[in-house]
Design goal:
ATP binding, Arc Repressor Mutant, subunit A, Rossmann fold, single chain, alpha/beta, helicase
């Protein structure tokens, strides 16, 4: 077979700078790139946002021939192709979403030997024409993204991934498999099914994502908690994961009614509606998606600034993978996971009523226990999370809610023994509500009818309030000391782990939970300093305008991380702009001058007005008004004539804090008030309530 003529080989490092605009590899990337470039079979387990795609894109450029990338989602493939083309790389995709013209263009590029990366879905491997096509094209490498989809026990299982091993044998080429999270069992499945049982060179990279802030909160009016969390991050892209399809729809409606741009996504939607939601999320700044876990695998949007869970995920692996969709550009990002006793009961029931064999159910309970241990942790959450994945960070991270504000704890040995005793003395036949009534001495009709007011444990826990007992029982379930029994309608049954505590052989420390602490969500993190915020908003507005004109997702122009570096370093020449991370040669040529104009203009026009507000509350309010204005620069639908207030007008609004539309109109005029008034007044009201 004759290899097509391709670009002469170069070092992957030269492509890293010239094509992608990065001066150095991220930790762990270089060794993987070297192994793949050398043609060694490779399995890389890397954290989401750790730069997996570069680990096969760079070798594809450095090697002769075509690299075939097997990827699970059309939206992901199309976006990666667009991003590569923007960077000056010949790439294409063969998907069911292609027009005939798009398919013809890809096939022609293959025939002419110009294509370096060819993306396709695993389902295409079922076609008998695929292997001959790839053989004629001179395929020299197979890259498999989301390799855990080969695992039949995983919720992302794709049967057509099982065809990849045969494809490797038929083409006789090396294979590089990538995934963000895979336990030992899944890794073994990947080796067996993709590599034919022959151990590839394996890289297990650190799981830490230091730019992501971790936080959990006990459910207390959970819809309000989610709405408050989103309101504090207005204008930022986010995902809210929900346990049911119905909740995605109701929560998306509530977010929309609260003034957010929001939509829902779940597996029960028509395929066209799902594709439309995926496309909108990839393209639009500041969009929130309320979704089930059907949404997310393969989502490559790097500027998702937050991920919230309205319900407890099913395992610690699922939690890690889902929060990993935030901050893939390395910029500051946040998470919030809500949970309560009902979540724990529901997840236990899911496992116990599943069709998996007993040993698998036991392993799933263990994974859930690990997540509950993280939720009920007493100190640094990152240490708990990384410890589960086999890493041992030394010091507390200083970057989670428990490091921000360590919880109060108490010796709970006695009340836990009371709870266990009450369960045993009632035949382990009742739920937490009835057991709480017993230990508190509440003479309910149910208690009297069953004679439980005569138990030795009746009233022994009067020293704690009902809310405190609810927190104790939730933590008991979270520590897996008691489990709901599916054969007794969810009655709490003691586990073996509880017996040493009941016998007085072990003690236990729990958190002093209060409703107040449950309500105080994680603090909002600023992406840049107060002084640089107006410039960052102006750069985002320019990026949005260019993306709309080119019909591209905004992050394909530049990621948030690149714009943050621009705002902080303020390059004034193209030479300086070229040193910004993420500004490769092609993007410098395409966009460099336009962003330089924003930076030099913003320095002169915006900063003097902003500087006069330094040290005052009006300063941060000015920044929020500037960001809101940038979002509405072309109207709420992005289709209207551009409009903006001057820096002086924004400074007047921030200082005067008008309370109604009439007062706002006097400051910025009726036309500007019509475009921006509602958003400005909402910001002013939020600021007033916060202070």
């Amino acid at each position: 077979m004759t290899q097509p003529e391709v670009t002469p080989k170069m070092s992957p490092v030269s492509f890293l700078r010239d094509v992608f605009g990065f001066d150095a590899f991220r930790p762990g990337q270089e060794e993987i790139v070297d192994a793949v470039t050398a043609g060694r079979d490779t399995l890389a387990i890397m954290p989401t946002g750790g730069g997996k795609s570069l680990c096969y894109q760079l070798p594809a450029l450095a090697r002769d021939g075509v690299t075939v990338v097997i990827s699970p989602l059309i939206a992901l493939m199309r976006d990666q192709v667009r991003g590569l083309r923007e960077a000056g790389v010949e790439a294409g995709a063969l998907t069911s979403g292609n027009t005939p013209e798009e398919t013809d263009a890809v096939l022609e590029s293959l025939r002419e030997g110009r294509l370096k990366l060819l993306y396709m879905a695993p389902e295409r491997l079922a076609s008998g024409a695929t292997v001959p096509l790839l053989q004629r094209a001179g395929t020299s490498l197979i890259a498999v993204d989301e390799a855990h989809c080969v695992s039949q026990w995983g919720h992302d299982f794709r049967p057509d991934y099982l065809r990849i091993g045969e494809l490797k044998r038929q083409l006789g080429v090396p294979l590089a498999a990538f995934t963000a999270t895979a336990d030992a069992e899944t890794r073994e499945e990947i080796v067996q099914k993709l590599f034919g049982g022959t151990q590839p060179e394996t890289f297990l990279r650190g799981f830490d994502r230091p730019n992501i802030h971790l936080a959990f909160a006990v459910k207390d009016s959970p819809r309000r908690q989610i709405l408050d969390f989103a309101a504090a991050r207005r204008g930022q892209s986010g995902i809210v994961y929900c346990g049911t399809r119905a909740k995605t729809e109701s929560l998306a409606k509530a977010l929309s009614e609260a003034g957010h741009s929001a939509l829902y996504y779940h597996g029960g939607m028509e395929a066209d509606a799902r594709r439309e939601a995926e496309t909108r999320f990839q393209r639009e700044d500041g969009l929130i998606v309320a979704a089930t876990v059907a949404f997310g695998m393969g989502i490559d949007k790097p500027d998702i600034r937050w991920v919230a869970h309205a319900d407890l995920p099913k395992s610690i692996e699922a939690y890690y993978q889902e929060i990993g969709r935030a901050g893939r550009d390395g910029a500051p990002s946040e998470t919030l996971t809500l949970y309560g006793p009902d979540d724990i009961r529901y997840r236990r029931q899911q496992i116990d009523e599943g069709l998996a064999p007993p040993e698998r159910r036991a392993a799933d309970h263990g994974r859930l226990n690990a997540l509950l241990g993280l939720a009920e942790a007493l100190d640094c959450r990152r240490k708990v999370l990384l410890g589960y994945f086999g890493e041992a960070p030394g010091e507390p991270c200083g970057h989670c809610d428990l490091c921000d504000k360590p919880p109060e704890t108490f010796d709970a040995t006695q009340p836990v023994r009371m709870a266990l005793s009450a369960a045993l003395r009632t035949g382990e036949s009742f739920g937490a509500g009835h057991l709480i009534d017993i230990v508190m001495g509440n003479e309910t009709e149910k208690v009297r009818q069953r004679g439980h007011d005569g138990l030795p444990t009746f009233g022994v826990g009067k020293g704690h309030s009902k809310a405190q007992w609810q927190a104790i029982f939730r933590q008991i379930m979270g520590r897996d000391l008691m489990r709901p029994d599916p054969e007794r309608h969810g009655a709490l049954r003691m586990t073996e782990a509880a017996r040493p505590i009941l016998r007085g052989e072990e003690s236990i420390v729990l958190r002093k939970d209060t409703i107040k602490s449950a309500r105080s969500g994680p603090k909002v993190r600023a992406m840049v300093s107060e002084e640089d915020a107006p410039l960052l908003s102006a750069l985002k507005a320019k990026r949005r305008a260019l993306a709309e004109a080119a019909n591209l997702p905004a992050y394909i122009i530049f990621t948030d991380r690149t714009l943050i570096e621009m705002a902080e370093t303020k390059p004034s020449t193209l030479d300086q702009m070229a040193r910004i991370g993420g500004v490769g040669a092609k993007k410098l040529e395409s966009y460099g001058r336009e962003f330089l104009a924003v930076i030099t203009g913003a320095e002169e026009e915006v900063h003097p007005a902003r500087r006069r507000l330094a040290g005052r509350e009006a300063g941060s309010l000015y920044d929020r008004l500037m960001a809101a204005q940038a979002d509405l620069h072309r109207g709420p639908d992005g289709m209207e004539k551009p409009m903006s207030c001057s820096a002086k007008e924004l400074a007047r609004v921030a200082s005067a804090k008008p309370r109604d539309m009439a007062a706002l109109e006097r400051l910025i005029g009726p036309r500007h008030a019509e475009r921006f008034g509602r958003a400005f007044l909402q910001l002013l009201e939020d600021s007033s309530e916060a202070s």
